[in-house]
Every structure is written in structure tokens, then in C-alpha cells.
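quick one before i forget lol
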Amino acid sequence: MITPYKDNKSGKKEQVAQMFNNIARRYDFLNHFLSLGIDKIWRKKAIRCLNGISPNPVILDVASGTGDLAIAALKLNPKKIIGIDISEQMLNVGIKKIRTRGYQDVIELKTGDSENLEFSNDLFDGITVAFGVRNFENLNKGVSEMYRVLKPGGKTVILEFSKPRVFPVKQIYNFYFKVILPVLGKIISKDTSAYTYLPESVNQFPKRELFIKELEKVGFKDCTFKSLSFGIACIYSAIK
């Protein structure tokens, strides 16, 4: 199992929380800077996949972090968006952002474990995750929990990094992701491991077709994926 801090004997979940707490202050800047702003476009495309799920839907944003995807989901005119994350520092940044923009009546961010969701069955019209599922300690348990709290007929949309398969994008991506990104991430975030863990975790994450099988395994139907930016990221959609 890939973990952020190789010499740390705590579990992956605890290490991921520690890592995001360490980089929370610079996370938004790094996201936009290292992706050249493309991550904003990806989030908008992911939210468009939820169009028509329900009038005024209730949405759960898993691994919400600083709340960027939850904010993007306001386009759906939701009744309520609840974002959960294990990193308190990331949530603190998100809560401040949401209050500054006046979204606090619709978006609520709170501490929560993605693999042990404290919600009743069949509660949410839609579930979103951006760049979070590869950080699950137990992938099957995480997607099972998402399935449990989603209403029948509800939709899950997952935005996650992927690995390009075509020349020369694959070669350029690998060089940037494994050589350039860790150096820049270390300099800016001051965390020596976070942006080394990122390419390692992407490399370990199941290939697109295999992740679709993971979703189907817990009961999801109509599972599909759509490649973004020549395969650098993917949007996965699934129905309960």
C-alpha cells in the first residue's frame, strides 16, 4: 500500500490526514498552478455530469478538502451540499472560503471518514468526489459507503487522475508528474513527501476499466468513464 510517509508506522488514513493538514495552506494555489488551471475545467465538467439528477438535489461531496467541487456544484441549484473530509486544516480553508463568498447557507463542510459515512441509507440525490478515491485506505469500503448513502436512482460522479496511454502525451506526462511536479510541490508546500506520494498513488490506482469493475462490484449500474485532457484525468459516472 502506497503511503505519504514511508518511515511513519501509522495507517494510510492517518498519514493522508497529516499530509493534507501540512499542505492545506498552499493546496489551492498548488492545484491551480501545477495543473495550469485545467483542474477548474475538469471540476466544471464533472458537475455537468450531474445535470438533471433531481430538482434542488441534496449532494454529498466526499473528500471535499477546501470545497472547490462543492462550490462548483452550486450550478445545480442544490437544496444542500454536505462536504466531508478527514483533514481539519483543509476544511478550515474551505469553510473560510465559503463564508467569504456567502455560500454557508447551502454548503456545510465537516470532518468525516469517507469509509465510515455517518449518514443514513438512501439519503443523497448525488455524490461527488474529486481526486479523493485513490487516497482511500480501503477502496471497496469507500465506494460501498457511497453506494449505501445514495438514493436509488441517484448518481455518483468521481473525478480522478489517470494515466495517458498515447504517445507523446504519456511520455511528457510521466516526466512532468515524476520529475518536475515533486520538486515544485516540495518547494512550494514545504512538505517533502506530498508531491512524491501523488504520482505514486496515481500509478497504484486501478486502471479505468478495473475501477469500473470496483464500482459494479458494490452494486452500481451504468458505470462509465470519460477521459479528460488526453487521459490525464477521468470522470467516472455510476447510478444506484
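fyi The first helix runs from residue 12 to 34.
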